[in-house]
């Protein structure tokens, strides 16, 4: 640990704790599973994480209280962002400075052109500093490592 100008111990930059909101919408459980994996990895890295289910009944989070927001979505219909997610974005009411996007999809419906299109749209809307994480259905098998790698990329952007 280093010392600040006042002589107080400071954590190395890479270990600074951030308060992170992970807001997600999930119908089949896949996006929820990705959100939980991300939360576990961030918590393991000593980050202060709040999980919020967009299409649940939890109290709406006060987004300005967080250092960054991670938003997860599935893609609906013909590459559409779900209404719940659109409503969440509108209810937030502004574009937080640091937003990271992850999504789940299924190439069986719409092929590669529409795969995780909602995640692409959100990442573009928020000017996300890294590409959105895109997971085919659930994050099991080799895709679990993709989730962890992307999460490490989020931490690098924050520190």
UniProtKB/TrEMBL annotation:
Co-factor requirement: FMN
Keyword Transcription attached: no
Entry keywords, A to Z: Electron transport, Flavoprotein, FMN, Transport
Molecular function in Gene Ontology: FMN binding; oxidoreductase activity, acting on NAD(P)H
NCBIfam families tied to this protein: PRK09271.1
Family designation: Belongs to the flavodoxin family.
Protein task: Low-potential electron donor to a number of redox enzymes.
Name of the protein this chain belongs to: Ribonucleotide reductase-associated flavodoxin, putative
Source taxonomy: Bacteria, Bacillati, Bacillota, Bacilli, Bacillales
